[in-house]
Every structure is written in structure tokens, then in C-alpha cells.
Amino acid sequence: MTPLTLTMQAFGPFAGSETIDFTALGNSPLFLINGPTGAGKSSILDAICFALYGQTTGNDRDAGQMRCDQAVDTLLTEVSLDFRLRDSAYRVRRVPQQERPKATGEGTTTQSAEAQLWRLTPEGEEDECLVARKVTDANSQLHALIGLDANQFRQVMVLPQGKFRELLLAESKDREKIFSQLFQTQIFQRIEERLRTQANQIERAVNDHRQHISGILAGGELESEAALAQELAALTPQVEQARQRFDTAQQQRRCAEQMLGEGQALQRQFEICDSLAAEKARHLEQQAQITAFQSRLTQSDHAQALRPYSTALVQAQQAFTATQEQQRQADAALAAQRISTEQAQHAFETARQRQTELPALRERHRQLGEFIHKGQQLSELEARWKTAQVAWQHADEALKRDEAQLDGIRQQGEALGAALEELQNEFQQLASAPVELSRHESLLTQRQELDELIRQGRELDAQQQQATQALKGRQREAEQAKRHTTEQEMRWHQGQAALLALTLEDEAPCPVCGSLEHPAPAVKHADIVTQDQVETARSAEERARHALQTAERQVHQLAQQLSYNAEQTQRLSHQLGAWASQPQVELQQACEQLRRQVGRHKHVQGEINRQNAARDERRRDWSALDKQLKAQRPQVEKAKEEALRLDSQCDQLRQSLPEDVRNPLVMRQTLIELDNQISEFEKNWESAQQALAETQTQQARAEEQLRSANQQLARNQQALEQAQAEWQTALQASSFESEAAFQAAQLEDNQRQDLARQVEEYQRRLAELDGALHNYHAQLAEKTLPDIAALTAQTKAAQAEENTQLEAWRSLDGRLKTLQGIGQKLTAAHTAQAELEAQYRVWGTLSEVANGRTGNRISLQRFVLGVLLDDVLIQASERLVRMSRGRYQLVRREDPSKGNKASGLELDVADTYTGKSRSVATLSGGESFMAALALALGLSDVVQAYAGGIQLDTLFIDEGFGSLDQDALDQAIAMLSELQMGGRMIGIISHVSELKEQMSVRVEVRASRLGSSVEVKGALL
């Protein structure tokens, strides 16, 4: 960072607006900031530090306290700094928080702190605005650009008043922060952190596996793996025995259920037989009524026997005139009736034959009713079994799905692990890319510096030629001025002699020699030189002499610069090696390729982090799903047992049903068909009986009518008389006492048919009951009524025994499977733990070494920084030896610190007078200043040489020179001059008068009652 222009307004002691143009001091100047005490010399450094970081150099004053008391109220306190960093120029402007007058009205308002940052064009104009107002954004941007925070900036680029010993006396921890920023060694810290993180992860994984093994044993309620093996050996035969006992109990249960079913069927037969006997007894109770019906039918038959006589009498009285027509009609009706009678007889025979099938159909109807009841029970059990089967299938499918998901998660974890391993391998392959990029960028910077040095060398050579020519001219001018001055002095003396000669008198002593004789007095010329002319000549001679000295000093400086340029060119050529002769574009292409590798390295690192996060997420998912599966498996087993139990009950009920009646729909349809068939048979039988009786009666009537018609036709009148006589004879011969009794005994056809039907139904049902009772008595002749309660109790006991044996078998089998699973898990866990322990032996050792947990407790970064510090101390000691007249050298302390304190970067001073090394804290004030100055200069050299991304091309030193003697002061100034010729800007704040005499380029700070002001003197304008 090189300051270009600094503008301070109402800041510190500066009441107005003061601007310092550092570019006017020359290219890489060595200048003095001079002025009386309190004038504001240190405030210039405060302004630079405040512009960059919002803090003062000593950080003793708040930024809000930097307002000038002499400034007018309307003038805002602000600082603006233009600076160059690498190949770009920037402008930063800061305004601290302060009170200012209100824009309207009276009183004041608080002006908030603000900061702006711009990138400048090559012409110095504002180009891109990087920060608009926010102070924190400006702080972070400037920190990123410069690479140093405020404290580090104060320690390596500014040696504030009273603070120059801080870097010298800093502890290893603080010096490590500064050096890591300067040399960009964060990659080694990241290596330490990566190794530490990897080792910690592996160590945690080892501990987790140990706890996992303990958890596996604890989950199985086992004390050790030996107990697992012992229990497995004892449990295996017990499980087989329990399974055999369960098979035996299951067979016994099935036998008991079969016996219970047979007993229940036999009990139902006894119940049906008792029911039929009771129904027959109730049927016999109607015997008296049926006998009365039969007697009434007999009287009706007797009356029916007399009815032809009565009818013949009536017909005889009425049919005389219609005899022939009646005969013809009766003959036709008799023929038709005979045909109807034959048909009715055939239908009657058919119905009677079918009537014999009714008992078997009714028995079939009863059995189907029982089968339908069992079928309903079977349907209910099958529905429950299907529900249980579906529940089991769903639970089993869910379990298999979760197991598949668990396996998928495991496969994903393995895939992630494989991908992570590939990424880690690629990451390891690219691990050297940042270092190589840093090295190549350093080489590129060195190559650019080399090209710049070659260009500067050509410019310096041209300047040297011009300065040599100018020196020759100054020499001629000085010689001429000297000759002219000599001539003027001689002529002045001659003129004084002539004037004195005018005052000589004879015999009077000469005022010069005292002689009384004056043989050759000086002659007065017209152009006598005056004293003023002599002084003018002497002034011209003095100016020519100063000009000559300036030219000589410039030639000398250019010679030194050329020598330094040649040395730096040779050094850079040596450091670049083969790259010094190759085109710069090839080095740029190599850097660009390495930048792509570094970008890929960062991308791979981010991908590794994402893959690790994804793998951790898969592990959490696996753990949660594994717990869920452990809870699901007992539920699946329970659902399976319920489905198997219902399936067993369905099998038992199916066995009690014939194959052809197991379908409830078919059985119900068959039962409906049987009902219809039985109803049809009964209706057909009744219809056939009724039709036969009707046709027989009609046939008899037709025959009687035909006979009557024939008689009437043969006898005419005699028939009537004969009919009357026959009626009387028949009535007297009958069982009727009178004609009224005959009339009372007569029945209508429908009444007669109804009574005949009731008698027939009674007799038919009685025959059916007798037949059914005979069949059941024959079936149950040698059988006894079963004990259903005993059979039921026996079945329940068998079921309970089966359940007991099933639970015992399941419990032992579940324990065996659990122990076998635990054994498999333990085997896998031991394998994984062995792999982790092998990894930890590698990564743990690397982490302990890299993080400084062994030996002298020096971490990898501190070791690298120690090597860099050695380079810094070599450069610093060269300067300290010169300033201390060969007495002191800075060395790095080799002994480790006591306790747990970080070590490796402590400084000691080697005293050649005593031959011993001691702490730098034992140096006196002047010695400490020399050591701090030498350390700062050496640090600047090494950082510039390594080109680690931070450029220390500016150094400000605030006081400290007053503690040096003349010799040490001369040596310090000589070293600063050498550093300045190497392209550094050196600014010194001091009251030492010798510095003012030796340094012509100065920034004069003048104090007054109205505020301080700044003036640049000796600038190359």
C-alpha cells in the first residue's frame, strides 16, 4: 500500500482542509515529517490509519475525538486518502460521528459515521464505487484488499510513537497472526484444522462404535459377548423342543375340535328326534275331531246313496218331456267325463309317487339349514381372516418397504461414501494446487518485477547518463564560479591596495608593512571591485558548489540505484530460474491453470462438505428407520399369528362342511329350490286328490243321469210312480228316521271336500311323523347323548395349551433371532471399529504432529512461520549489526515455552560482547528502537521477496531516533536510504536536527493559534 494523496479537514490540529501530495515527494521517497511539538506530525499518521481502518495509530483516541476545536461549525470533519495497491488505485473517504449545525433552524444534529470507497481510473478520477456509505462494509473491503487489520497495520507498516516495541516484544500467538497474514500461510492452518477435524471425527466414530457395541449388548440384556455365545448355545435346542411341543399341542387341539363338532351334530339329532315325538303327540290330540269328521262323511255318503232316488223322483216328475235330449247330453257328458277321470287318475298316481319323496326333501331342507348356519359362521370367520390377512400383508409390506428403504439408505450411504472417497482422493490430488498457485503467482509477480526492474534499469541508465552530463556541466560551472570569485577577490584586494596607496605619505609609515618608503604604490584602475561584488561572486560560487554537490549526490544515488537494480535483477533472475528466460505469457497460463485447479479444489472441498452433510443425514434417517423397524416387527408377527389363528379356525369349520355345500350362495339357492319343490309337490298332491274326487263324482252323476234318462225314456209315467215307491222304500230301508234327517245329513260338495282334505292331511302327517321317528330311532338305537360341556372344556384346554406352547416357542424363537442379529451386528461393528482404529493411527498421528501436540509443541503453520521468521531475522540482523556496531543479532528462541504456552516464534538478542542470548525485553530504549526498526525493515524485505499477496512498500516511523547516537543514527539513515532506493516509501517523524539537515525532502507542519498547516518542501515538482 502506497499513499498518493491525503486530505484532512477539521481533523486533529488542522482547522481547515490540508492536503499532502505524496507523489510530489518523488518516486519511492525518503522524507521527514518535521514540526514543533503538538503541531500535528503524528496526526498525519492518525489520518492515514483512520482513513483505512477508522482508528488512530495508537488507538488511544476515539475517532469522534479527532475533531479540531478551532474548526468552524459548518466545516465537517473528514479524511480522504488516495492510495495505490499493486496495479490499482483507490480512494477512501471517512466521516466520524460528530455534531453539526442543523440545515434549517437552530441547534445541532448528530452526523452519523460514514465511509465511501472508490476504484480510481489511471487519471485519478473516481470510477467504480465499491462502498457507498456503510462503515462496516468499508472496513471489510479494505481489510480484504490490504490483507492486514488495524493492529497488524500498526505493527508492520507504522511504528507509532511509543509503540515501536510491540512487534519486537509480541508473543508467539500474536506474531503468528501477523506473519500468517503477511505470508498467506493459512493453508497450513487449514491443513492443521483438516487433520484435527478428521482425527476428531475418526476418534468420535471409534468411541461411537464402542458405545454402539455396548448398546448392542445392552439392547439384548447381555453383559458380554461370551454371555451371548453361551446363551446362543443353550437356546438353540430349546427352540427346537418348543416347536415340537407346539406341533403336538396343535394336533391335540384339532382332534378336540373335531370331537366337539361330532358331539354337537349328534346332540342335534337327539334334539330333532325328541322334537318329532312331541309333534306326534300333539298331532294325536286331533284324533277325536278327525273321527267326527269321518262320521259326518259317512252320513253324507249314506245320504248320497238315497239322493238318486230323490233325484229320480224329481227328475221323473220333470224329465218326461226332455227325455230324449237328456239321454243325448248324458251320453256325451259321460264320455267326456270318463276321459277327465282317466287324466285325473294319472295325475293322482304321479302326485302320490312324488309324495313319497317329501320326507327325504324335508330332511335335505333341514340339513341345508344347518349347513347355511355353519356357512354363515365360516363366512364371518373368512371375512375376519381376510381382514387379518390384509392387515398382516399391509404390515408385512410396510415392513418390507421400510426394510427396502433402509437398504436403500444403506446403499445411498455406501454410494455417498464411495463418492466422498473419490472426492477426497481428488481433493488430495489438488491439495498442492493452492501452494503451487501461490508459488507461481509469486513467480509471476517476481517476473513482473524483473521486467519492471529491467525497464527501470534502462530508465536509470538514461538518467545516469543525463546526470553525468549535468554533473560535468555543474563541475564546469563550479570551476568557473570559483575562478570568477578568485578573480573578484584579487581585484578587490588590488582595489583596496590602490585606495590605500592614495593615503600614503612620504616618510609616513605604511599601515600594512610599516615601511617609511613607498617605492611602488598601487595604481588605481577604473573598474575597482566592491565588497558587494565579491559577496555576489562568493554566493554564486556557493550556489554552484551546492549544485555540484546535488549533482554528485544525484549521480551517486543513481549509481546506487543502478547497483541495487542490478542486484535485484540478478536475485530475481536467480529465483525465477528457467522462468526468467521464458515468455511471461507461459507463466500466466500456468497460473491460470493453477487457478482453475484451486477453484476446483475449493469446489471439491465444498462438495465434500455437502456429501458429508448428506451422509450424516442418511445416517440419521437410517437410525430413525431402524428404530421404526424394531417397533414394526413385533406388530407384523402379531398380525401374522392372528391371521394364522383365524385360518386354522376356518379350516376346522370347512372340514365340518361337505365340499358341495360350502358355498353359502349355492346353499341358499338350493334351499329356495327345495322350498319351492316341496310346496309344489304338496300343491300338486292336493290338486290331484281334489281333481280325482271331482271327476269320479261327475262320472257317477253322468252315469246316473244316463240311467235315469233311459229309465224315464222306457217307463214314462210309470217311472214317476216307481220312483216314488223306490224313494219311500229306500228311505225306509236307510238309517235315516225321517226325510228331515236325510236332508240334515246331506253336505255340499265343498264341505265334503274340505272335511275329506282335513282327514287326508291328518293321516298323511301322521304317516310322515311315524316314518321320521322310525328312521331316527334306527339311527340312534346304539348311541347315547354326548357330554357337550366336557367336550367344550376339553377343546378350550387344548386351545389354551396350544397358545401356551405357541407363546413359549415364539418367545424362545424371538430371543434366538434377536441374539443372532446381535451377533451379526457385533461382527460388523468389530470390523468397522478395526478399520476406524487403523485410520486413527494414521490421521491421529498426523494431527498431533501438525497441531503441535508432540515434542516442542510447534504446529505446522508455526513451523513454516518459524522458517520464514528465520529469513526475516537474517535480513534484520544484517541491519541491526551495522546499527549496533557489530554487537547485536536477532535470533529465534529454540527452547519451548513453559506450560501449555505456544512457542516457536519467540525472539532473543544475541550479544557478541557476552557470547550469550537474552530476551529482547532486556534491551534499552535506543537498542529496542534499533531492533524494532531492523525487524520492520527485514520483515518488509522478506514479504516483498515472497510476494505473498501483501505489499509492504510503505513504512512510517514516529520518533525513536532521539535515542540513537550519531553513529547509529547515520547507520539507520543509510539503511533507510538503501530501502528507499529499493522502491519503498519511508516517512520519518522526528525532532532530531541532524535528520533535518540530512533530509532535504520534508513535510513541514506549522502550528498556530488558528490551527496547524502543512507544507511540502524539497518536492520534485
UniProtKB/TrEMBL annotation:
A single MF term (Gene Ontology): ATP hydrolysis activity
Keyword Protein biosynthesis tagged: no
Keyword terms, alphabetized: Coiled coil
Domain Rad50/SbcC-type AAA: 6-208
Region Disordered: start-end pairs: 94-113, 464-490
Basic and acidic residues composition bias: residue spans: 94-103, 474-490
Gene3D superfamilies: P-loop containing nucleotide triphosphate hydrolases
Name this protein carries in UniProt: SMC family ATPase
Keyword Transferase carried by entry: no
Parts forming coiled coils: 534-561, 636-779
Stored InterPro entries: P-loop_NTPase, Rad50/SbcC_AAA
Lineage, broadest ranks: Bacteria, Pseudomonadati, Pseudomonadota, Gammaproteobacteria, Oceanospirillales
A single BP term in Gene Ontology: double-strand break repair
